[in-house]
Amino acid sequence: MSFKDILKDVQAMHDKKSKDYGRPGDPYYNIRGSEDFGIPSWVGATLRANDKMKRLQLAARGSELANEGIEDSLIDIITYMTTALDEFRRTQT
């Protein structure tokens, strides 16, 4: 699998999850919810990525993941970090 193929998988995951967590016209609706607690949305996205990182740390230590596998967690981290960058750039303009 090539780098570009992985990026297509990331886009597919983003689009799929945006249907569950976003709103029409605002795919980051859930991420921006952190702003209700005084946390910038880009920081909120990195916190969610950190949750996925913790899952990967458990898997690396031999724990069995019950809900989603390593590949899904890796794709989620890429998606969250891309969202974080997008939101960071939005706040800098």
Write the SSE topology.
Blueprint: H1 3-21, H2 29-32, H3 41-60, H4 70-92
Helix pairs in contact: 1-4, 3-4
Could you explain the architecture of this structure?
The model has no long low-confidence stretch (mean pLDDT about 95). The termini are far apart. The radius of gyration is 14 Å and the shape is globular. It is an all-alpha fold and about 90 residues long. The chain is built from four helices and no strands.
- Total helices: the number is 4
**How helix-rich are the residues, as a percent range?**
over 70%
The separation of the N and C termini measures: 36 Å
Please tell me the overall pLDDT. Answer: 93
Radius of gyration: 14 Å
Number of strands: 0
Give the class from helix and strand content and strand pairing: mainly alpha
Order of helices and strands: HHHH
- Name the overall outline: globular
The percentage of residues in β strands lies in under 5%
Largest pleated sheet: none
Enumerate the spans where pLDDT stays under 50 for 5 or more consecutive residues.
Answer: none
